[in-house]
Structure formats: structure tokens, C-alpha cells
Amino acid sequence: MKMYPRPAFFPRSTRSGFSLVEMIGVLAIIAILAVIIVPKVFSTIASARVTSTVGSVTSMKSAVAEFSGKYGAIPVINGSRRLDDLLVAQGFLEGRFTSKLGTPPSASLAAGTWTQNATTGAWTVAGNGNMSNQSKLISYTVAAAQPANPNGSYYLLDGTTPLPAGSTIVSAMIVGVPVNDARELSARIDGDDPALTQPTTSTAADTTGKVTYTGTGTTRTVYVYIAHQ
Predict the structure, then answer these.
(1) Angle between helices 179-190 and 20-71 (to 10 degrees)
(2) pTM (2 decimals)?
């Protein structure tokens, strides 16, 4: 009788893949890590935007001081023009004021042509449009009384004392800042001064210190004090 070799037996191969229970466990761990890590990532990004904005404001202060030292009086242009365009035109800035906070303009309007009256020293600009909805540098005459909306014309830097009425004041105007970022910027710039009252909630107005804003909704137009003369 013909003999056939007995088939070899091999051990069952190691099981591959994951069971349903294991998959659920892995997904649960990922979800928990996401809940912990993602908010910290967004918080870090927001903090970096605030830090960048503080740096931009600081550089504006230097440019305004240099302009004032050379030309004396700072022109009053209010909220529809850009004082930073004049600083660029005269070589005190390399580019316009920008901020990581807020909403970038949908269209950046041309700077126009700035001229100075040889007799009075007054500056005028021609050829540019209304820039009221863009973040920029502005300059106002200090209001005689505190307005309902601190639009860069009135500051209580120490919490109680207004700037001299009739002075010229320069501010950074930042449009479309989320309320939490506005509050963080205020805390970063004014938070070390015990005389200043910080907003108690993210939606509360801030009317004292170097950072002011009011309004409703999810964003604010924020005004940051630069200098006055």
C-alpha cells in the first residue's frame, strides 16, 4: 500500500488587526486627548496674535515720536484716513500698521499724496478713499468730555484723569477683534496697573487705560493709545 506523507501542522498564525472593543478604546483615548490639547493649541495661537499686536503698537510709538521730533505737531486726521500712510511717506515706517488681531480689509485703498503747507505746516492728503473700516493709525483732538463710545478721542490712562482737552492724540484702531482677544489685549497692556479696572466678562466694555472698546456682538473695534501732544 502506497504511503503518503503526513501533512505538516503549523501553529496558528498570530491574530492581526483590532477587535471592536480595542478600536472603541483607541477612539476614546483620541477623543480625550483632543478635548485636552485642541483648546490649548487655539489658546496659544490667540496669545501669539496678541503678542504680535503689542509689538506692532510699540513700533508705531517709535515712529510717531520720530515724526513729532522732526515736524513738531502731529496732524489730526480722525478715523477716515491713515496717519500711518503719512509716516510711511516720510520714511518713519517701512509699511502700514498691521495687526494679527482683527479682520483684514477686503481691499487695501491707495495711500494718496500727502503735502505740507510751507506756511502753516499743516498736512493734507488727496487721492485716497474712506478708510474707516480698516485697521490703522488715527489721530483725534481730545474730546472735552468722555463720549459714550471711546473712539480714540478720549482716554483715562490712570483710570480717572482724562488727557488735556484739545490735545492731539494718536491711537491704533483695530477693526473686528473677537471679544476674547480684545479682553486679552487689554489685560496684556493694562493688566499690570492696579488702578485700572479690567472687564469682568468677555463681553463687557473697557473704557479705561490704554486699550478701550465698547459695542455688542462677537467683535469689537479696539483703540490702543499711542501718544498725545
Answers:
(1) 50
(2) 0.79
